[in-house]
């Protein structure tokens, strides 16, 4: 089992920040629950329940080990069809 996935304690989605000098009303950090680890190199998570929590857009996905985060991977959340 890869040691890095054994140590995953959480998963977050982070909306990209605007490059301004003021308040960014779109900035958000969403914590996703880990639901299972079906195989050694996988972590399944529960995504946000609806667009009120996570509006459709690009997000940075981070794996957490305590307070230490991984490199981000960009993902796109889309509106249901």
Describe the protein.
The chain is mostly beta strands and 81 residues long. Helices cover 5% and strands 40% of the residues. It is built from one helix and six strands; from the N terminus they run αββββββ. The model has no long low-confidence stretch (mean pLDDT 83).
Summarize the structure in short:
The chain has one helix at 3-6; strands at 10-14, 29-36, 44-46, 57-65, 68-69, 73-77. By secondary structure, it is mainly β.
Summary keywords:
81 residues; 6-stranded antiparallel sheet; 1 helix
Could you spell the SSE succession in H and E letters?
A: HEEEEEE
The low-confidence parts are: none
User: Helical element count?
Assistant: 1
Rounded mean pLDDT score? 83
Q: What percent of residues adopt helix (DSSP H or I)?
A: under 10%
Assembly form of the protein? single chain
Number of beta strands: 6
Q: In percent terms, what proportion of residues is strand?
A: 35-45%
Largest sheet geometry: 6 strands, antiparallel
Radius of gyration (CA) equals: 14 Å
- Spatial separation of the terminal alpha carbons: 37 Å
Query: What structural category do the secondary elements indicate?
Result: mainly beta
Give the overall shape, derived from the CA principal axes.
globular
